[in-house]
Amino acid sequence: MINSGDTAFVLAAAGLVLLMTPGLALFYGGMVRSKNVLGTIMQSLIMISVISIEWVLVGYSMSFGPDINGLLGNLSWFALNGVGSAPSPTYATTIPQNVFMIYQCMFAVITPALITGAIAERIRLSSFIVFSLLWTILVYNPVCHWIWGSGGWLAARGVLDFAGGLVVHLTSGAAALAAVLVMGPRYGHGKRSFAPHNLPMTIIGTALLWFGWFGFNAGSALAANGIAATAFISTHLAGMTGMAMWVFMESIQHGKPTTLGAASGAVAGLATITPAAGFVGPVAAMIIGLIAGLVCYGAVNLKEKTGLDDSLDVVGIHGVGGVIGTICLGIFASKAVNAGGANGLLAGNAGFLGTQIFAVLVVGSYAFVVSWLLLKIINTVMGLRVSKEEEISGLDQSLHNETAYNN
Amino acid sequence: MKKIEAIIKPFKLDDVKEALSAIGIKGMTISEVKGYGRQKGHKEIYRGAEYQVDFIPKIKMELIVDAAQVDEISECIRTAALTGKIGDGKIFVMPVEQVIRVRTGEKGNNAI
């Protein structure tokens, strides 16, 4: 039975999630040098086009189509064959299936866009487009099927991921780590200043991400109900405590809080609560946000000592956030909050924590290994990096013949 | 005729301009510049990455004046720009051979 309230809610949520990708473009764009701002924005923006096409043709069918051995959906829903305005018998049964399809499309779009932060200011757009397509087919779609698809093998083991801690944040974080290792640092890394060129732009991006995140997490209830409200509130609370903790840590360590720190802490809290949003209560959500602020702050600071150039901290914020959020769900989940969820460690069910840790290991290593191989192959076949000369003159000029700020 | 070139702290620009107006100086050229002397730069931290910023924003003001007024004007600038802290800036005085007003073709002190 189609419920018009649920349908309206999920359609609106899909619009909110779409907004996160241009939001991410601004979030990242502000953090790079001015000669790379358009190139960086373009890497996220183009995903809306490329991945939406992929999703409609094969992605939706591979992720949610009829199951093959728990590993993948088959291609019988190629080009949305049979996916119409009748509800699916398995997914979101109160809304048209094409509403569910377009909502999930927005998740597939933003996930590869997240990776671009790790390899900012040096990747060729054409190589990234090829990578993002193959990566979505080989990493995103299978992992999405394992966890959210009907018959997926991790779902069958009891793994929970409310809105994408594993499917979105851990897959992109693991791919980001592989990309940093394969591509190496930017020219001049550790010697020159890579200070952000426009922090107000990054703050606008943060605001759009936060706003869109309500669609991402609350919308993942796939109905306008109490669970959506629970997820909405946990999302806000974790973003807010993540921001507070990050700024607090900065103040202790350096004496001065920064706006970039406030934005980073908020995004860390939002990413970390994502897998848990509809399964935990408000106090747990605040604690998860505090842990996110603390651990992600530590991870980002640790990166400075490794010499790895994860330029905009995709690993430290999204990868680490996805891991600790999924594990925190194993600790704080409560059936009193969501009867369709699970009880975690604090509710006396240590087994569920073990299941969540297992999922982190499986998804993290699968995404890392496949991403690493893909990047190695693409690097050999067409090259991943722009030339040194192009890198020094900046992506905007060398790849797009554009200048962001003309006086 | 002399040229007075003063490097001052940006936030002192209004004070210096008002002080100069008060003693009858009618024109000047300013530019936003960057540099460092004894003050050195400062450190900025972005997500744990520390960057030493060597060049600090300053204002450079240039005035062409009658040689007889040089001491009065430079003292006026110095007093108005003074905070007593390191980084207050410097004033340079140098000779000017000729000044020509574009509109009228007047030369020398009449063109100032």
Describe what you observe in this structure.
- The complex is a heterodimer of chains A (407) and B (112).
- Chain A is 67% helix and 1% strand.
- Chain A has 407 residues and is an all-alpha fold.
- Chain A has a two-stranded antiparallel sheet.
- By secondary structure, chain B is α+β, with helices and mostly antiparallel strands.
- Chain B has a single domain, classed as Alpha-Beta Plaits.
- Helices cover 20% and strands 37% of the residues of chain B.
- In chain B, the strands form 2 sheets. Chain B has a 4-stranded antiparallel β-sheet with strand order 2-5-1-6, with helices on one face. A two-stranded antiparallel sheet of chain B has the order 3-4.
- In chain B, a hairpin with a 2-residue loop joins strand 3 and strand 4.
- In chain B, helix 1 packs antiparallel against helix 2.
- At the A-B interface, helix 9 and helix 10 of A face strand 3 and strand 4 of B.
Largest interface: A-B, 14 and 9 residues
The percent of residues in helical segments of chain B reads 10-25%
Instruction: Tell me the radius of gyration of chain A.
Output: 20 Å
The CATH architecture of chain B can be named as 2-Layer Sandwich
CATH topology name of chain B, in short, is Alpha-Beta Plaits
How do the strands of the widest beta sheet of chain A line up side by side?
1-2
Number of helices of chain A: 14
Structural class of chain A: mainly alpha
Order of helices and strands of chain B: EHEEEEHE
- The H-and-E topology of chain A, N to C, reads as HHEEHHHHHHHHHHHH
In the CATH classification, which architecture of chain A applies?
Orthogonal Bundle
* Average pLDDT score of chain B: 93
Instruction: Find the count of extended strands of chain A (DSSP E, 2+ residues).
Output: 2
Q: What is the element layout, followed by pairings?
A:
The complex is a heterodimer of chains A (407) and B (112).
Chain A lengths: L3 H28 L5 H28 L2 E2 L3 E2 L23 H19 L9 H24 L4 H4 L8 H19 L15 H20 L7 H29 L4 H15 L8 H25 L7 H19 L17 H32 L6 H6 L1 H6 L7
Antiparallel strand pairs in A: 1-2
Chain B lengths: L1 E7 L4 H10 L6 E7 L6 E5 L2 E5 L2 E10 L4 H12 L7 E7 L17
Antiparallel strand pairs in B: 1-5, 1-6, 2-5, 3-4
